[in-house]
Fold this protein.
Amino acid sequence: MPDDEFLQTAIEAARAAGQVIREQLHQAHRVRHKGPRDLVTEVDVMAESSIVRILSTRFPEHDVLTEETAAPPRRSRYRWVIDPLDGTTNYAHGYPIFSTSIALTLDDESIVGVVYDPLHERLFHAQRGDGAYLNGERLHVSAVDQLGEALIGLDWSSDLETRATVVAAIGRLAGHVATMRVAGSAALVPCYVAAGWCEGYFHLELKPWDAAAAWLIVSEAGGRATSLDGRRWRLDDPDCLVSNGLIHEPLRELIRL
């Protein structure tokens, strides 16, 4: 089956989830804690259901891995990796940065990636070997090659020990980069790197659904995605650094110190 059919299905599913997310934004939410500082709302579950319904109807033979549902045993080389609402804490507070992330992997390599910002109707997508796009317009990372001119995104962790590591990294970066931003959506901000709106982004506590789509989008936009030890990023890596490629190594060295 051509990748384009996979892509169009992922886009359809992301838009369906986005509609749920928009409609529920200003409603009172039932919030529960999966762990300290780690929230889930009924909207996460509703958005996930809308995605899985479309994917399982279209491709019943494929596996599905989502943030809110336990992973079933593997049956297929194809697996959809889904975060229905990335940035749940932002969403629950009404803070307008959140997204839906859908990736299709083949043997644990992303071949299709879609990240949808439903509030601003920005749809980022990529297919392996076919470039990255925002609402149909081709993307390319920025040409900034000096760390001192770079805007760097990052995110916290729900784990306090990891937060301390992030704070230490911020301290090391502060004197070397133009500025930094904490956004709260691990899927969305790497797409800003792909669009050339910032030069780098790092996260020290990832799950597969956080970055499966975004790393492909960055890579197809001409950027680079690695673990902090410099390896090409893999689905099971707990940390990730994405960049325009030009500042990658000096940025990685400062974060890792």
User: Anything to note?
Assistant: The chain has two domains: 3-138, 147-256. The chain has a mean pLDDT of 92. The longest strand covers residues 78-86. The longest helix spans residues 3-24.
